[in-house]
Design goal:
The chain has 13 helices and 3 strands, in the order H-H-H-H-H-H-H-E-E-E-H-H-H-H-H-H. With 271 residues, it is mainly alpha-helical.
Length: 271
């Protein structure tokens, strides 16, 4: 690993406070490019970089690598390791609407859960809580009891270690209290497995897949979609989701436009 790359990884971990998962993703992507080119990243020009990336056919994978390189070169320019700020254009990727579920679909899945045991109550509470808050699954699994203040949730372990407050729907709180009254373990962390250990991401995925046929992240999309279709302001949704940039949230405007079009086609006499 080159000295510049090592300095960049330290910068995003310490100064930018990115999560361990994000730092490792940057490290993996940038090391791969160094290994392919057999040269330190800082010595690559645009042509050499694109040549190193020519084997990646998937545009989303390619864009992830390009974003990592751009972040690295921006850091090098800012740190005066290089004289010019090299920036590569991302590949054009068709915008796909995020998959989401309606509230009726989610209620239907929760109705299938056998809540005669505490783990059933946990599964129902987890699904409703994800849909009621729009949290990332990593944020949800790191929740502790003192993160809930009356009808509000303080997200302390958000992306980039940024805190935010989210109001919690009453139905989700009721189900959560039911689960907490039944769980046989006394732990600060909320979501536990049958051994009383913290619930893993894989186990959470299995829960939502079993009852809804989707990943936990689809519940985050469902939360945002419900807010947008209900008329919520895009910047409010950005704040609730914890997006650093409004550009990330703007994917949901396509849903809003589609909903407006369907409304016109259904109700306007000239449609």
């Amino acid at each position: 690993m080159s000295n510049e790359l090592e300095a960049f990884l330290e910068y995003i971990q310490v100064t930018k406070a990115l999560s361990k998962r994000s730092v490792e993703a940057y490290r993996s992507d940038l090391l791969q490019i160094e290994e392919i080119s057999k040269k330190p990243l800082i010595t690559l020009d645009t042509n050499a970089t694109l040549k190193a990336l020519s084997s990646y056919d998937n545009k989303r994978t390619l864009n992830r690598k390009l974003s990592a390189i751009n972040a690295f070169f921006a850091f090098c320019f800012k740190s005066e390791f290089v004289e010019e700020h090299q920036k590569l254009k991302l590949a054009k990727v068709p915008k796909n609407l995020p998959k989401f579920l309606s509230f009726e679909q989610i209620k239907g899945g929760v109705a299938l859960i056998d809540q005669s045991c505490w783990m059933g109550s946990r599964d129902a509470a987890l699904i409703l809580f994800l849909y009621a808050t729009g949290m990332r699954i990593s944020e949800c699994l790191n929740m502790r009891l003192d993160d809930i203040e009356e009808n509000w949730l303080r997200v302390r372990h958000g992306k980039g270690e940024k805190e935010r407050m989210i109001p919690i729907a009453q139905n989700a709180l009721i189900q959560l209290k039911k689960y907490l009254s039944e769980v046989p373990f006394d732990k600060e962390q909320i979501w536990l497995n049958y051994r009383g250990q913290p619930l893993s991401r894989i186990s959470a995925f299995k829960i939502t897949q079993k009852y809804l046929g989707v990943s936990p992240h689809v519940l985050r999309h469902s939360y945002a979609t419900a807010l947008i279709l209900g008329g919520a302001d895009l910047r409010v949704v950005q704040e609730l989701l914890g997006h650093a940039s409004l550009l990330t949230t703007q994917v949901y405007t396509h849903i809003q436009k589609q909903n407006l079009q369907e409304t016109v086609l259904k109700h306007h006499p000239m449609a």
